[in-house]
UniProtKB/TrEMBL annotation:
Protein name listed in UniProt: Peptidase C39-like domain-containing protein
Superkingdom of source: Bacteria
Organism in which the protein naturally occurs: Anaerocolumna chitinilytica
One Pfam assignment: Peptidase_C39_2
Bias (Polar residues) ranges: 12-21
Spans annotated as Disordered: 1-35
Domain spans labelled Peptidase C39-like: 127-259
């Protein structure tokens, strides 16, 4: 995967640094969540920061994308110590600039991974948006050679639904990921099994039922107080496989929480945009 010797393809053997690297002038943001920081960064002097449809960049193209951001303290940190970062994380950053602060601080975050917490504000939201690369849990291992930031969309999606339905503050993405690994819902080399969304959800007091990807049935399930988790194929959200949450809809389309991307979570998605990308849909509700 990596031929230059500059980037490592695994999570192991990273060095640590003592500083928290944020964008210039962002020292006051340290107490804010990654979602809050990303929302503030969506609009800049140059215009709105957008996230394009994911591309399968080559290593050379990944380097070009990162080097094009030279002058940003976070990217300069990454480029100066490429050996500290797994290649998969750099490739994700090339596709999603929202991750820049997380990736820059990744080596330091490894030591404190798996200590996630949920704020009162998030507990009170209808369906809180959790990003799998949130510094609270993004460096938590998921599988033998990966972390939540790279492959944890499944546990993160289920965590959003559990918290939204039950207000269980212990159901953080890292704890759901730990549950997934300990109970056989993670398949090495593939990722999260679909059964996490059914059998696994039941262990958190959630009823789950697979639905056909039908617009009327999806809307009816949302009207009845359920949330939808969708397994997505290649398209607007992913190159291979991904889980997203649909928590509401309006006249413009479905409201989505994408655990990988704030930009895509800030949009409504029409059924025609989603239907050919959906591989499976589950409706999740509180147990009666």
């Amino acid at each position: 995967m990596v031929g230059s010797g500059k980037m490592k393809p695994t999570i192991d053997s990273v060095s640590s640094r003592s500083t928290d690297v944020l964008a210039s002038g962002d020292s006051e943001r340290k107490a804010e969540s990654p979602v809050q920081i990303a929302r503030k960064m969506m609009n800049t002097k140059e215009g709105e920061i957008t996230v394009e449809t994911p591309e399968d960049y080559s290593e050379e193209e990944v380097m070009q994308k990162l080097e094009s951001q030279s002058g940003d303290e976070r990217y300069d940190t990454i480029l100066s110590q490429l050996e500290d970062y797994p290649y998969e994380l750099l490739k994700d950053l090339a596709n999603n600039p929202e991750m820049a602060s997380f990736v820059a601080n990744y080596p330091d975050l490894l030591e404190g991974s798996g200590k996630g917490n949920i704020s009162k504000k998030e507990l009170d939201e209808k369906c809180p948006l959790f990003l799998q690369w949130d510094k609270r849990w993004g460096a938590f291992r998921y599988g033998e050679k990966s972390v939540l930031a790279v492959s944890g969309c499944g546990p993160t999606a289920l965590s959003m639904v559990i918290v939204g339905l039950t207000h269980n503050k212990e159901a953080t993405p890292d704890n759901v990921a730990d549950f997934s690994m300990n109970n056989g819902y993670y398949l090495q080399g593939t990722g999260t099994k679909w059964s996490l969304m059914t059998e696994g959800a039941a262990q958190f007091g959630i009823n789950s039922e697979q639905l056909p990807a039908d617009k009327e049935q999806m809307e009816k399930s949302l009207d009845e107080g359920g949330f939808l988790i969708c397994s997505m194929g290649r398209g607007d959200f992913t190159l291979a496989g991904h889980f997203i949450v649909i928590y509401d809809y309006n006249e413009k389309g479905f409201k989505v929480n994408d655990p990988f991307c704030l930009y895509r979570s800030n949009q409504e998605w029409t059924y025609s945009q989603l239907e050919n990308q959906i591989k499976s849909v589950w409706v999740l509700k509180n147990e009666v």
